[in-house]
Amino acid sequence: MVSKGGRNFQTNVRDTEGLDIDDFIDNYEVGKKACFGCPIHCKHVWHIKTGEMAGLTGIGLEFNAAGALHFMAECEDWETIMAFYDGCNRFGLDVASASAYIAILMELYDRKIITKSDTGGLAYDWGSRDAILGFLEQTTKREHIGDVMANGLLKAADVLGHDMMQYVVHSKGLTIEARDLRSHKGQLLGEVVSSRGGDHLRGRFTIEDFHLPPKVTESLYGKPVPSDPRSYKGKAWPTVWTERLCAVVDSVGICKFASKWMSPGLLGPEDMAESFTAVTGIQKTAEDIMIDGDRIYTLEKLFNAREGISRKDDKVPDRYHEPLKYGPYKGENIDEQKFQVLLDEYYELSGLDSDGIPLPESIERLDLNTMDDLESMVTENTDI
After folding, report:
1. CA–centroid distance for 245 within its chain
2. DSSP letters along 307-353, please?
3. Could you tell me the domains of the chain?
4. 3-state class (DSSP) for residue 229
5. How far apart are CA 132 and CA 100, in angstroms?
């Protein structure tokens, strides 16, 4: 497994006991819920019975909240995490970004880059409940530092100084979750080239965690992939494959947790082709499904190209050039020269030019509009 981004990715281990999952299950979980018809039931239903938050009930606690607040912000309190998660859901905030923003602000406060004059008197100490819940209130009400961060990281840097970005692990302004990917080159590639920035659900090669033998990955992807996550070799193709799979998974309305994004034994292109054919009467093969995924993702790249996004934005976070400090991957970091070679391979396999822009022949092959047609289509259809 990958390391975790302790203290906003300054370290990859914790020097505290940490949260106890049994404590959550025994004292807070009161049930499980699922999306309609789903057998997984991954949503925890929880209830706080005593203390100042007694009576608070919610659903969820995904890793992006518990992981980011615990590992990145050093919060040791389940109730603070539950209250924050529930508040994000109620106020319409992205819990993954909001959790990461808190850890970023805690490091900036620790380094005295921001002070109480910026935060409305709130001390952003590591693990502080007041800071975590205070950030939620300040952001929702657009007050003090919350007003700055509500505009997003890139605009926040215009106010707080662009030097702050060296402490931010992100892709295209969207924070990468609390998994430290310095050791896992394929997974990092997926986050770096993601069409919407640091999003593990777009094309992250999650199965890299399994260390599968090349013969097994060849049966999955059609090409063997080295089992060592530290290897740069061969990691471009499973990233491209996963992007296409995820695009179709989103389009047909199934969950990533039930797909081969999550585990090699779950639903793949063959299963989706069979289901699509049965439901619609339109004949699809596994190859057709993956071409559809290619078309979707290439269209997203075209939108990005129109907005000026290119290779310059497919960038490794600065902090990932620093070596990991502990554990089995101690000393591992990103070799920029090797990563650029990997990026070139990804572009070639994706039908992109050396700047990350879809090639004319790719657009034609996938029966997509040209960039001019696409722009006019979006402009004319203003009701979409």
Report:
1. 16
2. TT--GGGS---GGGGSPP-SSTTTT----HHHHHHHHHHHHHHHTB-
3. 3-168 (1.10.569.10), 182-380 (1.10.599.10)
4. coil
5. 11
Q: How many CB atoms lie within 10 A of CB 269?
A: 24
Return left, alpha or beta for 357; rule: phi > 0 is left, psi -120 to 50 is alpha, else beta: beta
**Residue 80: phi, psi to the nearest 5?**
-65, -45
Amino acid found at 37 = G
Q: Which amino acid is at 279?
A: V
Query: What CA–CA distance (Å, rounded) separates 342 from 6?
Result: 27
Question: Which of 15, 19, 13 lies closest to 330, judged by CA?
Answer: 13
The two tokens of residue 302 are 């075209």
Per residue in 170-215, pLDDT (tens digit) is: 999 999 988 899 999 999 999 999 999 999 999 999 999 999 999 9
Residue 253: partners with Cβ closer than 8 Å, 6 or more residues away? none
The token duo for 71 is 């590992």
pLDDT, tens digit (0-9, with 9 covering 90-100), for 216-270: 999 999 999 999 999 999 999 999 999 999 999 999 989 999 999 999 999 999 9
pTM of the model: 0.92
Closest CA to 345 of 172, 184, 186, 173: 186
Distance separating alpha carbons of residues 175 and 5, to the nearest angstrom:
12
Query: Which residues 6+ apart lie within 8 Å of 307 measured at CB?
Result: none
Give the whole-angstrom CA distance, residue 201 versus residue 71.
20
Strand partners, 57: 47
